[in-house]
């Protein structure tokens, strides 16, 4: 019986070690997956940057072709002012929004008042 207890104890110990090894390997697999995803993302980003550069070059070439064609057709070319940089994005700053005057027609004011009355009537019911 003493030998079977020793064997059983050794098997349990080996089982615990195997569980630890399995857990360690699972962690390593998860890390490798994350690393593979990161590398794939970086490769894709690099590929897109190269493609973006090619497209920018192509756009610049097409712009030059357009300018040449316009000059041949007699269209006067007006250069952009060098002191003011162009806005390339479509976002508008808060200062620009605040400086835009807003005018509301009297018809729109009446419509808003009518909607306010309807809302008050609904809340009273």
Automatic annotation (TrEMBL):
One of its GO terms (biological process) is translation. Keywords: Coiled coil, Protein biosynthesis. The keyword NAD does not apply. It comes from the Eukaryota. InterPro entries: Tyrosine-tRNA_ligase_regulator. Residues 103-125 are annotated as: Disordered. Residues 110-125 have a biased composition (Basic and acidic residues). The keyword GTP-binding does not apply. Residues 8-72 form a coiled coil. This is AIMP1.
């Amino acid at each position: 019986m003493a030998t079977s207890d020793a064997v059983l104890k050794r098997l349990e110990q080996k089982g615990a070690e195997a569980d630890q090894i399995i857990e360690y390997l699972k962690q390593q697999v998860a890390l490798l997956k994350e690393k593979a995803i990161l590398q794939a993302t970086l490769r894709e980003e690099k590929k897109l940057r190269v493609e973006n550069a090619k497209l920018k070059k192509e756009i610049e070439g097409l712009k030059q072709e357009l300018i040449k064609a316009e000059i041949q057709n007699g269209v006067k070319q007006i250069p952009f002012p060098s002191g003011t940089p162009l806005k390339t994005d479509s976002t508008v700053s808060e200062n620009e929004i605040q400086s835009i005057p807003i005018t509301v027609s009297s018809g729109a004011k009446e419509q808003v008042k009518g909607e306010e009355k309807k809302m008050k009537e609904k809340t009273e019911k």
